[in-house]
């Protein structure tokens, strides 16, 4: 099972890039820290096709007149993975954030998986005590445990007292840390994002740091010794509008019996709606039948099928490499400029994709050509006498029956 973590620094504006990270790296699970989500953001808006999400938003605290923001955790898993959120008591005197779930692929061994975040600038002692307590708590489940997150403890500086205490604490609770290279690049790279496990047979060789551009942290991953879920093909039920004869569709709608809508003036709105749908669906089902189809188009096509964006992405990646190797102000500025431009172009491409006409749009355009226009004022001179009106009605009724 491939598990990843990234400090996203605000998830909502980076949903497309997060989906791309999941797809390109073939992740079964992605742990996210610093989601910056709040209770007024519904999980229904955080769509990841074929995945579901667990989240733990930061509790809003006030310090005097200032309201703290940020933090927050999420775990995104494939739908095929069985997962249950664990109720681990939160620390009382620590700002350490954590989210724990039990996971299992169909027919596979279960494990405990966690995401964590420790804000910078907080006292280390209560945070390490809280982390120690949680690691002991989840170990009681007697399952493999994997904890991924940003602990803001730089392991490239083992000489620092808090780092030494952290490593000692892990040894005392029989956990070890797998990441070996910096996870936050820049002029002074640091190793802030960690993967902890109680599995002594799992070595750092199955963990990796992968360059990304979604935040100032890179992605960390682990190939955990857990069975990978077999991905089910994505299928949806939709109306097929590919081979519609719009002239025949409109004619059938015009010739349909709509009299049920006018038989009883006392009909309720709900009854009128049902009567309309009965007639409407009987025609639409013939011309646009419901079908179960397997999705074959790529996820986020405005990004994956856009050659200009792919070229800009390549330029951005090259600039990132130059920034990391040269470390100059100019290379940093060039990278940030291309990174910002790429994000702007993604938003524009997404808007253009969704505003493009579809086959369903074409159908409604054709139907509106045959729709009745808005009612217009009628003068007394325009009113037909009953005899003339009946002759018109008889004529069109006869024409309609001949067409059928």
Automatic annotation (TrEMBL):
Protein name: Endonuclease/exonuclease/phosphatase domain-containing protein
Pfam families recorded: Exo_endo_phos (PF03372)
Domain of life where this protein originates: Eukaryota
Domain (Endonuclease/exonuclease/phosphatase) ranges: 7-217
SUPFAM superfamilies attached to this UniProt entry: DNase I-like
InterPro entries for the chain: Endo/exonu/phosph_ase_sf, Endo/exonuclease/phosphatase
A Gene Ontology molecular function term of the record: catalytic activity
Organism: Amphibalanus amphitrite
């Amino acid at each position: 099972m491939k598990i990843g973590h990234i400090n996203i620094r605000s998830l909502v504006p980076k949903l497309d890039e997060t989906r791309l990270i999941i797809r390109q790296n073939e992740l079964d699970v992605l742990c996210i820290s610093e989601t910056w989500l709040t209770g007024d953001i519904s999980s229904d808006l955080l769509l990841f096709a074929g995945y579901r999400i667990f989240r733990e938003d930061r509790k809003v605290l006030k310090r005097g007149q200032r309201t703290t923001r940020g933090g927050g955790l999420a775990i995104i898993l494939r739908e095929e993975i069985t997962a249950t959120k664990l109720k681990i008591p939160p620390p009382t005197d620590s700002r350490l954030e954590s989210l724990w779930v039990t996971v299992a692929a169909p027919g596979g061994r279960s494990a405990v998986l966690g995401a964590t975040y420790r804000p910078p600038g907080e006292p280390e002692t209560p945070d390490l005590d809280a982390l120690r307590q949680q690691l002991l708590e989840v170990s009681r489940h007697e399952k493999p445990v994997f904890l991924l997150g940003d602990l803001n403890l730089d392991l490239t500086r083992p000489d620092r007292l808090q780092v030494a205490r952290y490593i000692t604490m892990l040894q005392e609770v029989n956990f070890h840390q797998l990441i070996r290279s910096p996870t936050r690049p820049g002029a002074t790279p640091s190793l802030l994002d960690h993967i902890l496990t109680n599995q002594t047979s799992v070595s750092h060789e199955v963990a990796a740091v992968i360059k990304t551009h979604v935040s100032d942290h890179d992605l960390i991953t682990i190939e955990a010794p857990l069975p990978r879920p077999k991905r089910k093909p994505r299928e949806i039920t939709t109306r097929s509008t590919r081979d519609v004869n719009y002239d025949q569709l409109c004619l059938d709608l015009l010739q349909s019996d709509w009299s049920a809508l006018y038989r009883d003036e006392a009909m309720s709105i709900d009854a009128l709606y049902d009567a309309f749908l009965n007639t409407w669906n009987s025609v639409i089902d013939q011309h646009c039948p419901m079908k179960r189809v397997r999705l074959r188009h790529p996820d986020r096509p405005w990004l994956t099928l856009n050659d200009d964006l792919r070229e800009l992405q390549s330029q951005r990646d090259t600039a990132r490499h130059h920034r990391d190797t040269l470390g100059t102000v100019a290379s940093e500025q060039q990278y940030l400029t291309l990174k910002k431009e790429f994000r702007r172009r993604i938003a524009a491409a997404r808007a253009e994709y969704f505003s493009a006409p579809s086959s369903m749009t074409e159908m409604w355009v054709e139907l509106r050509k045959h729709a009745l226009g808005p009612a217009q004022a009628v003068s007394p001179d325009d009113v037909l006498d009953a005899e003339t009106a009946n002759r018109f009605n008889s004529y069109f009724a006869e024409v309609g029956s001949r067409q059928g």
